[in-house]
Amino acid sequence: MSGLVVSPFDRQRYVGSVCTVLPATVEVNLPFAPRPGSTLMAGYPLQRGQVGEFVVIEGEEHAVLGRLVETKLPERDRLTVEPTHERDARPNPVGVVQLLTAVDLETGIPLRGIPISPRIGQHIFSAHPLVVKQIVEAGTTPEAKRINLARFPHARDTLVSLSPSQLLGRHCAVLGATGGGKSWTLAVLVEEIARLGGKAILFDATGEFQTQVDPRITHVHLGGRKVDQNDPRRFLSFPYWELTESDLFVLLRPSPGVQAPKLKEALRSLKIAQLVPGLAANGLIRKTGTPRHPFEAACVQHGLALRRPGTYFDIEQLSNQIWEECVWPSGFNAAQAGNWGGTNANEQSACATLMSRVESELASPNLECLFAPAGLEPLPSVVEAFLADPAQRVLRINLEFLSFEHNAREVVANAVGRHLLGLARQGRFMANPIVTLLDEAHQFLDKSVGDELSRTDLDAFGLIAKEGRKYSLTCVLATQRPRDIPEDVLSQMGMFIVHRLINERDRNVVEKACGDLDASAAAFLPTLGQGEALVVGANSAMPLPVAINRPARPPSSRSADYENLWG
Questions:
Q1: 534 in helix, strand or coil?
Q2: Model pTM?
Q3: pLDDT in tens, 411-434
Q4: How sure is the predictor about 450, in pLDDT bands with cuts at 50, 70 and 90?
Q5: Beta strands of 105-154 (E only): which ranges?
Q6: Nearest Cα to 186, choosing from 171, 170, 169, 204?
Q7: What would be the CATH architecture of the domain defined by 162-238+373-555?
Q8: Average pLDDT of every residue of the chain
Q9: Domain coordinates of the chain in residue numbers?
Q10: Cα torsion for 354, 356, 358, 364, to the nearest 10°?
Q11: CA distance 187 to 476
């Protein structure tokens, strides 16, 4: 009869008839709605008039799929449902159906929009879960290559699977209040990417994904050290020379005036000391009374290396080099005009606090992974090995041991994101797309760190969202605070998996960012149960309520058991 897997117009699934037609909704008679509970038909639930139910409106060439968003009794019938009512009158409920999409009856292919509005008197049927599944999963991707994401809340036997391109190809946002099920969703995505042979890098902000024990998943840790020789964990460094000058300024916090330019000069001098060892003495560029021309010529010759991250220098010498920078710009007479001058005591006095701060930062155990990388594997090398190893599918970077002190966690995570974007711009991911999954994304997006005069924007993951797709680098952002994600980043998300959202500002932000999520669909968000979500996006035919599958290895995201631990 049609291109649909089952007939959408099954008389046993009859719900009612259209009585009012509006551009985006229709009102329907619901003669069976007052009957308590739902029934089963051929093993599938039949609700017949329950808010949230999907319905199909009968048509000649296509069927219109809608969702029941409101049921009510006309004023004259309001008291007929009361047990004290004397007359044996039956209530006549009316429902409001939001029109979602239409499907071609001959091909079974969903259409964008509603080509022909329903007419008064057309019959309405409860949508069979397999019809909804076919509309949602429309495409040519075989079942074996789809991401098994969820099931229907009222038909748990019906699996909802989406193609990787549909779910991840245009970035994805996983949103929801604490306890709504975001971590489960991320865990399911990680397991499915590994199963399908994809490549992903998971930034684990809290360490809750340590449960993902799988030979295809590599676990590494930024920050911290091994407890003893028997500790199996892999602790990595992100070497300080991979940071930008702006990153170092945020960590070392020079004051404006004297300290900031002297720190800038000292960093340049230490790099020249490594690039042109003949100009250095014991790893330092001595400036007092020495000729300026050889140093300046070396700066011009190695200008590119000085400007980009990755040029090695010895940070242990930084405070000494700052001291060396405190000289007059030229000698006091014509014979010494081409030399640096003598020591400037005022600048040395002004830089004393900066030098003390540098020594303190370098000795901080919380920043060992940056400033004392000896004995630790560098993260860029581990990323390279992960990309080259076909057996490894997911790289989990655990950030829980990385301190928030002096914005270290935000700076390092941003630097790693910038490193990945740099690889993407070189075309490294074109043959093997990479998905970056960022848990607690609000910690790393829309952040400006540093003081007023050395402020820097942490924009690496925002840039991945804006331009990564053309380089086959996409992202999944998970957060409980959508209002803290920049609007221009959220607008780049092609797919939203929205769990329970209670805060009205959060719901407004999501509704504004996702054009397919209107007010009537957003009204269901506060009532979603744990693990339930709305899947909605540019490639999705309609906002779809689902119950996310239980991951094979659920994350350890439970709170402390106060009742048993206290007392």
A1: strand
A2: 0.85
A3: 888 889 999 999 999 999 998 899
A4: low
A5: 110-111, 123-126, 147-152
A6: 204
A7: 3-Layer(aba) Sandwich (3.40)
A8: 86
A9: 11-137, 162-238+373-555, 242-366
A10: -140
A11: 12
